[in-house]
Amino acid sequence: MKLKAILAALLLSVSAITFAAEVNPAPAAAPAPAAQTAAPAAKKPQKKSALMEMLPIIVMVVIMIFLFSRSNKKQAQKRMEMLDRIVKGSRVLLNSGVYAKVVEVKENDFLVEIADNVRVLVVKEGIARVMEEEKKEDEEEVINKMVRILEKMDKDGRSDKKLRKAVRKVKEESLPKLDEYDKHLEILGERNSYSKTDPDATFMHMKEDAMNNGQTKPGYNVQIATENQYIVNYDLYWRPTDYGTLIPFLESFYDKFGFYSSEIVADSGYGSEQNYEFMFANGMTPYVKYNMFHKEMKRKFLKNPFHQANMFYNQEQDFYVCPMGQHMEHITDKRTVSDLGYISNTSVYRAANCSKCPLRGMCYSGKCDRRTIEVNHKANSYKSSAKTLLTSQRGLMHRSNRPIEPEACFGNIKFNHGFKRFHLKSTRKTKVEWGLVSLAHNLRKYVAYKAKSKKKQAQSMVLVLEKPALKPAV
Questions:
Q1: What is the pTM of this model?
Q2: Predicted confidence (pLDDT) at residue 230 exceeds the cutoff of 70
């Protein structure tokens, strides 16, 4: 279309020049006196010829403006079509040169994720291109290059079989493999594995390992919340670890009931800095253990003065004191990012000199002459609060009840009723299946409770009926 427009413009310009030449033809050769005599009469036609000489340039400018505006309209239309094709999950390149993933499509802008748990709002004008289109262009360019290589080899008469075979292999095998790998990566998302029979399932270690070789199997991490052994909330997650599921699970509870539970009881697999921060910030009381809780309660740990937790800490001047009385000064801070994108700040403390310390062998086993410790004050504060709650009277009650709450539900479902494997595939279907299992568990629990209460009521009535009558007083 562009070539046709350019040819049309050239034809118009040529015809305009021809028309101008016909209106104002070039003067024929004549003697000088005759030209001087005719000069006064030829003044008016000279002005017309000047306008006609400008006419081709004007026509060319008009045509160029028309073509330019038309190309701009086409580009704008093409861009609108590109923006309309953007959906949730599309990978885009921003004008700033940052690659991002579209999380949510809105009316006038997009919510994109530029890093783990880092999301920004970008207007439509900030999108440079969609990565899939760029990939297609790159693939077409590679294919065209290979075609040109083969054509050049045919033209030059080269019969390099190895080179031809390599080019054909790239075209017929490698490029389709790239598409296959991209599909696998798209299915994976943030995971490191998935099952071919159920792409939503992730390979993880199971408690039941018949081979005792740590074999992984595709599955889902089922989370439940219970009250008096009734399942009140459940959800399925692809993360094998528990600490990454607590916050979304509590949020799902809030979405269903409109409030957060006032008290949260969980084992040490859920005790992380991020989870403690979320629970305290939302007014929940966390009776949640952390990974060192039981070890810190032992006498051996409490009586070891070389542990960082047992060292004296001067909060005002920010230094630790080792068992020999040497100050461990604050030297720097470190930032660590978890796999969930949570940023933790850690302070680093170092002693002045430990080379001649008589307790060096018991203190640490490093080769450096100065001991260095890393302390996360924020996490330690949360752990201290959790420890106070867990060792309180109510905390001891919750700790003793926790094994007979959710664990009893899992045990009843798995061993008493034989539900150890999902029969359906995909997250949506397995959620429905587990919902039916939970509903059946709650109904069985309720029926048993009603039967037990009726039995107690009947027994009390029998006792009343069999009670001997009292003899009247004489």
A1: 0.64
A2: yes
